TrEMBL record:
One of its GO terms (molecular function) is ATP hydrolysis activity. The keyword ATP-binding applies. One of its GO terms (cellular component) is plasma membrane. Keywords: ATP-binding, Nucleotide-binding, Transport. It comes from Yoonia sediminilitoris. Transmembrane segments: none annotated. This is Amino acid/amide ABC transporter ATP-binding protein 1 (HAAT family). PANTHER family: ABC TRANSPORTER ATP-BINDING PROTEIN, CONSERVED COMPONENT OF ABC TRANSPORTER FOR NATURAL AMINO ACIDS-RELATED.
Length: 249
């Protein structure tokens, strides 16, 4: 775990009698995409929420760059370098692409709020937002109202907003959801190029994307990690086939 950018240690979350995450220890190493897969209700979102600080675990800890952030709230974890995209879009549809990205950049530095009126800070934020939009291929769309973007472009924008935070690690919750083949391909290429900048913990149902991107895969079933390894390890695992992949066939 020592070189892990992000690590969980024995995370447990129960809802009544249900163990949504059951002793989950998982890590994310520099430069990698680590995919977490599992059937509906396996506990993937619950795990992500505990990592990001939206849900308090019953037991276990979360480390970011070796620092115990278990008692940090969501904002403090973001400030410590945890970048996130959401399963449900959090974009402001009435605002332009650039405005959405600048709002994301504000989240990067709380102190900036105090200087929001300052032209210099505004310039810094705008430059950072523009750089992130260029990175995700949305330079042409600065003044486009977010509501007028395609579904795929909104996903690109969400990734761009996460980039404005200069994260040390990304958490992505089903970024391919609802995208057609073209959108998935474009986003897959984008994520592929981002792992060098910050490793990605990727929760994803789209197995084509998972197999195209993952350096490692962990399989979550009934709240437990039942297998973890390379794509081949997972594809050839009888345990996984029985518990999960077999259902997809
Ligand atoms: N707030 C809650 N209260 C009660 N039960 C919950 C709550 N949140 C999640 N659960 C239950 O915990 C289990 C894990 O849910 P979770 O949403 O984490 O699974 P998931 O793997 O993300 O599923 P999906 O792939 O469908 O998004 C499910 O049985 C779910 O019904």
């Amino acid at each position: 775990m020592s070189d892990a950018v992000l690590a969980t240690q024995n995370l447990v979350k129960t809802f009544g009698a249900l163990k949504a995450t059951d002793d989950v220890s998982i890590d994310l190493r520099p430069g990698e995409i680590h995919a977490v897969i599992g059937p509906n209700g396996a506990g993937k979102s619950t795990l992500i929420q505990q990592i990001c600080g939206g849900l308090k675990p019953d037991a276990g800890r979360v480390f970011l760059n070796g620092q115990d952030v278990s008692h940090h709230d969501t904002r403090a974890r973001a400030q410590a370098g945890l970048g996130r995209t959401f399963q449900v879009s959090a974009l402001c549809m009435e605002d332009t692409v650039l405005e959405n990205a600048v709002l994301g950049a504000i989240g990067a530095n709380r102190a900036v709020w105090r200087f929001w009126a300052s032209a210099l800070k505004t310039r810094e934020l705008t430059d950072r937002a523009k750089a992130a939009l260029e990175r995700v291929g949305l330079s042409e769309h600065h003044q486009t109202r977010c509501g007028n973007l395609s579904h795929g472009e909104r996903r690109q924008l969400e990734v761009g907003i996460a980039l404005t935070l200069s994260p040390r690690a990304f958490i992505m919750d089903e970024p391919m959801a609802g995208l057609g083949a073209g959108g998935s391909k474009k986003l897959t290429e984008l994520l592929d190029g981002m792992r060098a900048q910050a490793p990605i913990l990727l929760v994803e149902h789209d197995m084509d994307a998972v197999f195209a991107l993952a350096d490692r895969i962990s399989v979550l079933v009934y709240g437990k990690i039942i297998a973890s390894g390379s794509i081949d390890d997972i594809k050839n695992s009888d345990v996984v086939r029985e518990a999960y992949l077999g259902q997809e066939a």
